[in-house]
Amino acid sequence: MAEKSLPFTADRRRALLDQMLMAFVLGMIVFSALLGLFYIGFKVRYLGLINPGVTIAGIDVGGLKPAAAAAKITLALPYHQQGLILLRDGDRTWSVTPAEMGLFLDPETTAYNAFRIGRGANPLRSLSQQLGAIYTGADVPPVMIFDQRLAFEVLTRIAEERDRQVVEPSLSVVNGEVIIHEGKSGRFLDKEVTLALLAAQMQSLRDGVVPLVFSEVKPLIVDVSAQAELARNILSQPLTIGMPDRQPDNLGPWVFEPAELGDLLVFEKVLDDDAPRYELGLDDEKLYRWLSDLQPELYLEPENTRFIFNDDTRQLEVIKPAIIGRILDIDASIDALEEKVLAGEHNLKLEFIFTPPPVTDEMTTEQLGIRELVHREISYYYGSSAERIHNIRVSSERFHGLLVAPGETFSMAQALGQISLESGYAEALIILGGRTIQGVGGGICQVSTTLFRAAFFAGFPIVERHPHAYRVRYYEVDAANNQVDRLVGLDAAVFVPIVDLKFKNDTPYWLLMETYINAPARTLTWKFYSTSAGRQVQWETTGPTHIVEAPKPIYRENPELAQGEVKQVDWAADGADVTIYRTVIRNGEVYFRDTIFTHYQPWQAIYEYGPGTEGMPPPDTENEE
Question: Which of 162, 256, 286, 447 is 20 to 30 A off residue 310, Cα-Cα?
C-alpha cells in the first residue's frame, strides 16, 4: 500500500525556516570565529613587519621590518645618484644627476608608507588591504624629495652663460656726427617652465633629455631715425650763446662748434607710456658746470645813477647812468637753452635775474631830497710828488657823483674798492709798519682826510676814524701854505680793507658827493648836496699838547746808492696829543656831542747814503704821507 504524504502546512513551513535560519546563524558564527582566528594569527605573524604582497617600485618588501625595507630600496633604487639628465639648448648640453638637481630618495618615509598598508584605523578596510596585497599585490611609489633650490642654482649658472641681454637701438655723437646703433633681441632662460619639465622627467625615475626653455624679448624701441635727424639738424651749424640786449659790458658771445655741441647732446630713454622712445636733450650737468663757472664773471652789482647838482638850474644831471644789477639764472638758462636748441635755433640768449638799484636815471631832486649845497670842504697838497697827485685824482674820482642813502653808514674803504696797480694807482710814499715807505696808493689819505672833515663840519656822526701814526704836514696847511695848528688832529687814515673811515647819513634825505681837483692850486674840493637839516657845528681844539720832540735822525748805508749820494727815506715829526670837541646844533638845540682824540708818535728822520759817502747834511725835503 502506497505511503500517503502529509500536507505542507504553514506551521511546517515556519518550522523549516527557523531551522534554516538557525543553521545560517551558527554557520556565520563559526565563519566569524574562524576569520577572527585568521586575522589574529595574521596580525601576530606580521607584527612589526610589512604585510605580504607589498612592493615599493616593484621591489618586494613584504615580511620586512621598515628599517630593513628602507635599506633594501636604498640599494635597489640608485636613480637619484646614478641617473643621468641631459639639459639641452640647441647643440649645447649639460650632463647632471638627479641629485645634483636636488632630487633625493626618502627611504624611511617610503618604508613607513609600505608598512601602513593594511594597518588603518578601520579593521575591515585594513583586512581588505591585506587580502588585496596577498592576492593582487600593493605597490607603493618611492617618496622622492625635490629641492628646487639646487636645480635653480644650476639653471642660474646656465642662464649666466646662455642668456642674451636685449640691446635697444641707440644714438651717439662722435666728432659732431650722429651714429645709429641697431638694436638686438634678447633671450632669457625661463626657469619656472624648465623646472616643471625637469621635475616631470625625474619623477619617472628614468634618464632623459630636458630641453631648456628660453623666452625671446624684443627691443622696446623700434625706430630712432626721427631723433637722429633732429640731432643732425642741431649739429648742422655752430651754436652761439650771447648776452641779453642793452647790457653795459661787452661779454660773449660763446660759440660751440658742432663737435663741442655734440658733447652736450644726450639721448634719454623714455619707457613710461605705450610708445617707448628716445628723447633728445642737453646734458644738464655739463651745462650747469659751464654756467656755474660763468656766473661770477657775468655778475653785476646794481649801482645808483651818478649825478652832479647844477647850481644854476638846481637840478640833477646824470654823469653816469645807473647799472641794473644782474645774476645769471642758471636753471632758467638751462631750460631756455634746451627748449630753443631742440626747436632748431642756433642763436640763443642767457637768462638773468635783474635787480635795479634804489636810484635810477629819471629820479629828481624832489624824489631824492637833494636841493642844495650843505657843505664844501677844501684840502691842500702842496709839495706832493707826481705819483701822489695821480693817486689823489684816481681815488677822489671814485666818489664823484656818489650817493649816500638816508640812514646809511657810508664806508670809504668799500667805495674805494681794490687798491692796486691794476686798478689805476701808482706807487708813492705811505706809512706802514712804523715807517714811511713806497707803496701802492700813497696819497689816498689826502682824500680820506678831506672826506672826514666834510662829514665832521657838516654835522654827520663819525662812526669810524683812525689818525695817522705821526703828524703829516699836508693836512695842517691853509690856502697860503701856512702851518695851522688848529687843523692838527683833523686827519683820517685809510688802509683798505683794514683801516676804514665811516660816517652816517642820519637824515631822511639822500646825500650827493662831488669831488674836484684843481691841479695848479693843489686843492681837493669835496661838496655835499642834500637838504639842509638846520645843523650848525661848534668845535674846539686843545691844539698839540704833551709834545715830544722827534728823535735825532739816523743814517744808514745803502749799497744800492752811489758814493756821495744821500737819500732821506723818513721825516722827523714831533709827537703830540690833540683833543677836539664837537657840538652839533639842530634847529637851535643840541643834537649831539662827540670828542675826537688823536695821539701822534714822535717820528725819526732816516737818511740813507752810498758807501764811502762823508759829511751827510740832511736834504731839505718835506715829509710825505
Answer: 447
What does the alpha-carbon distance between residue 15 and residue 6 come to, in Å, rounded to a whole number? 15
Rounded distance between C-alpha atoms, residue 442 and residue 453, angstroms: 19
Residue 368 is predicted with a pLDDT of 97
- Provide the 3-class DSSP secondary structure of residue 342: helix
**Cα distance between residue 167 and residue 475, in whole Å:** 84
What would the DSSP string read from start to end of 363-408?
Answer: --HHHHT--EEEEEEEEE-TT--HHHHHHHHHHHHTTTTEEE-TT-
Given a cut of 50, is residue 567 above it in pLDDT?
A: yes
Angle at 281 between CA 278 and CA 282, to 5 degrees: 145
Edge to edge, what strands does the sheet with 606-609 contain? 554-557, 606-609, 566-570
Instruction: Annotate 209-238 with three-state secondary structure.
Output: EEECCEEEECCCCCCCHHHHHHHHHHCCCC
pLDDT band at 608 (very low <50, low <70, confident <90, very high): confident
- Grid cell of 35 as nine digits: 576569520
What global pTM score does this model have? 0.64
What confidence category does residue 625 fall into, taking pLDDT thresholds of 50, 70 and 90? very low
Q: Give the amino acid at 135.
A: Y
Dihedral angle sign, alpha carbons of residues 119, 125, 127, 130 = negative
Where residue 322 falls (left for φ over 0; alpha for ψ -120 to 50; beta otherwise) is beta
* Upstream peptide bond of 497 is cis (omega within 30 degrees of 0): yes
How far is CA 485 from its chain centroid?
63
d(CA 410, CA 527) in angstroms, rounded, equals 15
- Per DSSP, helices labelled H in 398-512 are 412-416, 444-458
What is the C-alpha separation between 530 and 506, in angstroms, rounded?
12
Contact 251, 243 (CB under 8 A): yes
C-alpha cell belonging to residue 509:
634825505
**CA distances, 610 to each of 205, 554, 558, 572 (Å):** 117, 14, 5, 21
Distance, CA of 76 to CA of 313 (rounded, Å): 127
pLDDT single digits (tens) 360-405? 999 999 999 999 999 999 999 888 888 888 889 999 999 999 999 9
C-alpha 121/C-alpha 388 separation (Å) is: 125
Percent of the chain with pLDDT over 70: 92
Which region holds residue 493: left if phi is over 0, alpha if psi is between -120 and 50, else beta? beta
